[in-house]
């Protein structure tokens, strides 16, 4: 491998880039979430307050972006750590697919948890 060039087969250039993109999404999304939830609504955190906030499409998009970015960022980070410990070949493929399936299940569970407010 040439110096300064990311080898695509080593861990995935696109996964490396998405790791950085999701980090930015998490920083911006969590900042907005904390300001809106804990600063602007100080002392007013209730079911009705959350339902009112999630009635606005902007906050639904932010929550789903946080859910997806958080799951991807965490599982891709775990994948990269485990690849550093010697997963290769078939075990790397199985690890990737297993984490992908877990991520889809986690996103489904998160969607299920948000569903009562989305259908209200």
Please give a structural write-up.
- The chain has about 120 residues and is mainly alpha-helical.
- It has one domain: 3 helical TM bundles of succinate and fumarate reductases (Up-down Bundle), CATH 1.20.1300.
- The protein has five helices and no strands.
- Helix 2 packs across helix 4.
- The longest helix has 29 residues.
- The radius of gyration is 18 Å and the shape is elongated.
Overall outline: elongated
**Strand percent estimate:** under 5%
SSE pattern, N- to C-terminal: HHHHH
Strands, total number: 0
The low-pLDDT segments are none
Per the CATH scheme, the topology name is: 3 helical TM bundles of succinate and fumarate reductases
Structure summary:
The protein is mainly α and 120 residues long.
Task: Record keyword descriptors for this entry.
single chain; 120 residues; elongated; mainly alpha; 3 helical TM bundles of succinate and fumarate reductases; 5 helices
What secondary-structure arrangement, pairings included, does this model have?
Layout: H1 8-11, H2 13-39, H3 47-54, H4 57-84, H5 90-118
């Amino acid at each position: 491998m040439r110096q300064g060039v990311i080898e695509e087969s080593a861990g995935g250039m696109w996964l490396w880039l998405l790791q950085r993109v999701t980090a930015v999404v998490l920083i911006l999304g969590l900042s907005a979430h904390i300001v809106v939830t804990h600063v602007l609504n100080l002392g007013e955190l209730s079911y009705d307050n959350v339902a009112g906030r999630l009635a606005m499409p902007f906050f639904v998009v932010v929550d789903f972006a946080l859910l997806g970015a958080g799951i991807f960022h965490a599982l891709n980070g775990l994948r990269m750590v485990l690849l550093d410990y010697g997963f290769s070949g078939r075990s790397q493929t199985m690890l990737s697919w297993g984490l992908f399936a877990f991520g889809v299940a986690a996103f489904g569970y998160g969607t299920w948890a948000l569903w009562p407010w989305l259908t209200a």
